[in-house]
Each structure stands twice: as C-alpha cells, then as structure tokens.
Design brief:
Layout: E1 17-18, E2 21-29, E3 33-40, E4 44-51, H1 57-68, E5 78-83, E6 89-94, H2 101-108, H3 113-132, E7 135-136, E8 145-147, E9 153-155, E10 162-163, H4 176-193, H5 201-212, H6 217-228
Antiparallel strand pairs: 1-2, 2-3, 3-4, 4-6, 5-6, 7-10, 8-9
C-alpha cells in the first residue's frame, strides 16, 4: 500500500482592510461606490463607502463634507473619512439595517397611522436640520431612509448632498436645492400616508401640502401628522 502524501501547508492571509478598518463582507455595489461592512475594535460594525474612480473623488468628498455639517439623531452619522491604498476616498458611516423605507412599505402593503407618523416625523425633522446647516440632501426618497436596529428611521444616502452658507428659512424659498428636498419629503409623505387605510384623500393631501408649502417642511409636516394622531412603533 502506498504511503499517504505529506500534508499540504495552507497559506492563511490576513483579513482584507480598507482605510484601516477590517472588511467583513461586501454589502452592495452601486454605480459610484462600493459599500462594505467593516469592523473596528473601538467603533464596532461600520459601513465603508469607497468611491470607484478617483475622478469622482472631489464630488464624493464634497457630499460627505456636507454631511459632516449636520448633527441630528435621525441623520446617518459620519464617523471617519479615509482612503484606500490607491488614494480613493472612503467614508466611514454608522452601520444601519439594510432595509429601506421603500422595502418596508412594499413588504407591509398597509400600515397604521401611528407607524406612518413614526416614520415620517423624524425624517422631516432631520431634513430641517440639514437645511438649517446649509445642507441640501439632493436625493430624498423612500430608498434614502434606512433604520437602526431599534427601528428608528434615519435619513441616509447623502451622495448628492451639497452645502452652502446657512440662511434663514424664508431665504430658502426660491433655492432649487431646497425645493427639490421639499418635493422629495412631500413625495415620501404621500407614498407613506397612502398606505394608511384610515386616512382619506383629503387628510393625505393636507399633510403633503403642508410639507410642500413651508420653508420648514419637516416641522410643517410634523404638525399636520400629529394633528391626525399619535406615533406608534413600526412593525417590521
């Protein structure tokens, strides 16, 4: 009987790293960025957004510099900015759950009024905080809203954000950047409230119109929502 071949040594490589963070796995690949799940002993799990091409670096950095100006509990937290070995910028964000508001609404079909308030009111507040800081989100829709593990909605996806000098609310009325955000919030409100069986068309139109017609759309939407009912926990 022939002898067994000697054991083969298997090379063990170190975990992949990106901007000093260990890469756990790829979460998504978009047209401009890769999104990886990263880990740091101090920060824990994080999201790593890496731009594909260095030619897009300036716009990427400008958008995340805009995000860095905003501090609000329902705005995604920018934790760090780094670079890959080939000098492509990396934004390090808090890790959010992968479900978007679009997916949540699509899966549920209908939701309660209290759930709609819990989803919409904090996002409106977050948008007002952005505008108060001179930041326009630039891409607010249901896919730009994600959730934390405790169910709190978070305004994310700041890739199209822009920043300018902060101005009082009345001075924002004719700025196309803020108008685009108002329209985005109104569309999100219409989509969400349209899933609430107990609301009639007039109630939906009233809440949506409040967001569309105010220079503080989040506050106006919140007032309209809480005139209709009270918040309740989202049921995932």
């Amino acid at each position: 009987m022939s002898s067994s071949p000697p054991p083969v040594a298997v090379a063990v490589t170190a975990p992949a790293e990106c901007a000093g963070y260990r890469v756990v796995r790829r979460l998504a690949t978009g047209s401009l960025v890769d999104v990886d799940l990263g880990f740091d002993p101090d920060a824990g799990a994080v999201a790593l957004l890496t731009v594909h091409r260095r030619t897009d670096a300036a716009a990427f950095l400008a958008a995340h510099a805009a995000l860095a100006r905003v501090r609000h509990p329902h705005v995604v937290r920018l934790l760090d900015v780094g670079a890959t070995d080939d000098r492509r910028p990396v934004a390090v964000l808090e890790r959010l759950e992968p479900m978007t508001a679009a997916a949540f609404l699509g899966r549920r079909g209908t939701i309660g009024l209290g759930e709609a308030i819990t989803l919409l009111a904090p996002i409106g507040q977050a948008l007002d905080a952005c505008h108060d800081a001179g930041v326009a989100h630039g891409g607010l829709d249901a896919s730009a809203v994600l959730f934390r593990a405790d169910g709190a909605p978070v305004l994310a996806s700041f890739g199209a954000a822009s920043a300018a000098e902060a101005v009082p609310p009345a001075a924002r009325a004719l700025d196309a950047r803020y108008a685009r955000d108002r329209a985005g919030l109104a569309a999100l409100a219409r989509l969400t409230l349209g899933r609430v069986a107990e609301l009639d068309a007039a109630a939906v139109d009233g809440a949506v119109g409040a967001a569309e017609g105010s220079d503080r759309p989040g506050a106006a939407l919140g007032d309209a929502l809480f005139a209709l009912g009270s918040a309740s926990a989202l049921r995932f």
